[in-house]
UniProtKB/TrEMBL annotation:
Protein name, per record: DNA topoisomerase IV
Organism field: Flavobacterium saliperosum S13
Top-rank lineage group of the source organism: Bacteria
Amino acid sequence: MKKNSLAVVVLALTLASCYNQERNCTDYKTGKFEFVQEIDGQEKKSVFERTENLQIETFDGKTDTASVRWVNDCEFVLQKLHPKNMQEKKAIGMKILTTSDKGYTFEYAFVGDAKKQRGTVTKIE
């Protein structure tokens, strides 16, 4: 019985290690996107447009612009161009984890911060 269980576990691990989810990150380097998140129990929507070098985002009626520096096809760094305080001066590292035909899942954190958060973005144009 133990041999059969071990064989099943080894087979499952072998199959799982062969599975590589395809990421088409270059499909999301530019375009218009929507990000929905929950803040204080309310759903908030952010809409942003990204070019190769800039990201213009509108959130809660306010528009901000950030520079975009691509580290590789799936990772980039955002830096606000006109920060209003020390917190806004901090760069944000973004990493696209998975992609689909509608958008992507990503993780993000202030550069140098180990506490990462996740989100999902939908491409709207």
